[in-house]
Amino acid sequence: MKNVIEYMLQASRDTDEEVALEACEFWSAFCDAQLPPEILKEFLPRLIPVLLSNMTYADDDEALFDADDDDDAPDRDEDLKPRFHQSRLHGAVDGGEEDEDGDEIVNSWNLRKCSAAGLDNLSIFYGDEILPFLMPLVQAKLSSSSEETWKEREAAVLALGAIAEGCIQGLLPHMSQIIAFLVPMLEEKRSLVRSITCWTLSRYSKWIVQTAGHPDSQSQFDTVLTGLLARILDSNKRVQEAACSAFATLEEEAAEELAPRLEPILRHLMFAFGKYQRRNLRILYDAIGTLADAVGGQLNEAKYLEILMPPLINKWQHLPDSDKDLFPLLECLTSIAQALGSGFLQYAEPVYIRCINLIRTQEVAKADPGIAGVAYDKDFIVCSLDLLSGLAEGLGSSIENLVIRSDLRDLLLQCCGNEAPDVRQSALALLGDLAKACVFHLQPRLVDFLNIAAKQLGSEVKDNVSVANNACWAIGEIAVKVGQEISPIVMNVVSCLVPILSNAEGLNKSLLENSAITLGRLGWVCPDIVAPHMDHFMKPWCAALRTIRDDVEKEDAFRGLCAMVRVNPGGAVSSFIQMCEAIGSWHEIRSSELRVEIGQVLHGYKQMLSGYLWDQYIGALDPSLREKLVKKYSL
Questions:
Q1: Which superkingdom does the taxonomy of this entry point to (predicted)?
Q2: CA distances from 476 to 54, 189, 247, 303, 423 (A)
Q3: Spatial distance between the Cα atoms of 411 and 112, rounded to a whole number of angstroms
Q4: Which of 244, 242, 250 minimizes the C-alpha distance to 224?
Q5: What is the tens place of the pLDDT at every residue in 192-238?
Q6: In 3D, which of 603, 573, 579, 463 has the Cα closest to residue 516?
Q7: N or C: where does the chain have the smaller number of CB atoms within 10 Å of the terminal CB?
């Protein structure tokens, strides 16, 4: 293996870039293969300088030929990347992988980008061990301020960004100095240096935000924030893109820290809104939507809405129904509607009507594009459904006046049966949100909605997990609103949920949690139907309940547990340990009524089992769990 490494090290600095590129792929592959670290460790002092050298822009890199001030130049069609809308998912617990190169600092895969990826992977694999070989080189490159060495400085900044995840512990004592050094580079003459500095700062967002609470570091947070906002208004499109992406990352970390700074943030973003070309406008929509997600209801002040909403509503009114630039705007408005809640009511009616019309037009286009006047594109349906979900979630029962005057119920039923999984996914999310907000308007077709939702939980659940997830969640939301009206489909749904809980491998956490909650909700509203079958599902059900965070939905599931045990206490005896583990998973039960009910369940078993048998069951519990339950429920 050492001979192979030696060969790859030599090839990584070959004068033929294609050879060097293929060789550099080896370093990431080595890390991914999880080979013993000692094999490569002795080569690190020679390898790190090679990778850093390769990260310098080549003289023929296409990025070097872009104009520095190009924000007035219209975007070319080829500059507009295809966009993919992610359908709404209820109960998601894990965010998607972030695309750290989403800002396209490097336009295509090349030696520079491959070497940076290799350094990133090595930093994760070896951690702080690479710092003695890297940091002197980085410091030397950054110390030169001449115009001729700008590419060296840029590569050094890229290197600092690449090692942000893997070497953070070793860098922590020096982070204040690193940030203080990076911020002035946002003002560098070369646009490529400004853009890479935005990206590198974003890689340290977590640290920048974590220290913002300390008085000494508060000013540094504000300095980074101000620097990124200034670059959002840069005269170079690449820098605008990098700054917007970096700011969105900072927003996600900062959340409520942004609230006191909302006015200058909004003024910068909305000034950019009037300045950006189509491509960067898409990224700006994301930054605005992320801001709404981060600060939530704190955005709902007249002074902020006067800055934010007029440009967005103006754009909304002027984009034709067939323009795909509506997609990112719909996504942005979805986040804003959820954040503003009732504050969005003043904008809701025209937005609601437009969404209904978009869905209706696309349903016609699906059958006959000639009559519709547009080509069928399901993304218009998906984005419109998601915005309607945002409206339902934000406005709550106030959306009722809009729903009652439209044909949304019939359109939604069509969408729930659509052959496209992402349309069904978003439609079922809206079904659940409407059940929470105004279930009365669904009731004329409730049986049809429930049958379609239940069908999504069948044997093909692993092929469309996100659709099944939303179907399961929607059924649970309907159950708590309509009670025993749901009884005709209860056993059909239970028979689908039990295999999901019993064969959890390969299914995402969100589906398992929603399945456990919905099963509990069905048991709560129809205990006489579900309780006789408890012995078929108690063990996997309780195992899933243990993993759910404390919230209202978990409370509903445990109300179902208590209701079913009252009907069929014998059905849970063989799963007593798993039931106690599920009960013990609570940190705090906010509902005093539920606390009493759970206590009654445990005391009921103590009485039913009595004496030696109770001692045997309670003694089989983990000692810390036993102590917790005995103390909390006076057992």
A1: Eukaryota
A2: 55, 57, 37, 39, 20
A3: 50
A4: 250
A5: 999 999 999 999 999 989 876 666 667 889 999 999 999 999 999 99
A6: 579
A7: N
Closest alpha carbon to 122 in 219, 41, 213: 41
Cβ neighbours for 100, distance < 8 A, ≥ 6 positions apart: 199, 203
Could you tell me the two tokens for 315?
């754009």
Under 8 Å between Cβ of 592 and 601:
no
What is the share, in percent, of the chain residues with pLDDT greater than 70?
92
* CB 308 within 8 Å of CB 271: no
| Cα→Cα distances 283→245, 249, 254, 340, 593, Å | 7, 12, 19, 21, 47
- The encoded tokens of residue 379 equal 């993304």
Structure tokens at 64: 């070097």
Which tokens sit at 553? 């939905």
Rounded to whole angstroms, the Cα distance separating 555 from 541 reads: 14
The answer for 275, left when phi > 0, alpha when psi is -120 to 50, beta otherwise, is: alpha
- Between the alpha carbon of residue 31 and those of residues 37, 318, 595, the distances in Å are 8, 51, 50
Among 7, 85, 76, residue whose Cα is nearest residue 47: 7
If DSSP codes are grouped into helix, strand and coil, which group holds residue 306?
helix
Q: Which of 318, 266, 307 is nearest to 287 (CA)?
A: 266
**Using CA atoms, how far apart are residues 369 and 376, in angstroms rounded to an integer?**
7
Tokens for 166? 């893997």
Q: Helices 576-584 and 623-632 sit at what angle, rounded to 10 degrees?
A: 70
Q: What letter represents residue 562's amino acid?
A: C
Query: CA 334: distance to chain centroid?
Result: 14
Q: What percent of the chain has pLDDT over 90?
A: 78
* Sequence-separated (6 or more) residues with CB below 8 Å from residue 216: none
273-282 pLDDT per residue, tens: 999 988 899 9
Q: Which residue type sits at 510?
A: S
pLDDT tens sequence across 254-305: 988 899 999 999 999 999 999 998 889 999 999 999 999 999 999 999 999 9
| CA distance linking residue 46 with residue 27, whole number of Å | 13
Phi, psi torsion values for 417, nearest 5 degrees: -100, 10
| 255 Ramachandran zone, left/alpha/beta (phi>0; psi -120 to 50) | left
Q: What is the DSSP string of 444-486?
A: GGHHHHHHHHHHTTSTTGGGSHHHHHHHHHHHHHHHHHHGGGG
Q: Encode pLDDT of 559-591 as tens digits.
A: 999 999 999 999 999 999 999 999 999 999 999
Instruction: At 52, list the tokens.
Output: 């850093």
φ, ψ of residue 189 to 5 degrees: the values are -65, -40
Check: CB of residue 511 under 8 Å from CB of residue 546: no
At 241, which amino acid appears? E
- For the four alpha carbons of 432, 435, 441 and 442, in that order, the dihedral sign comes to positive
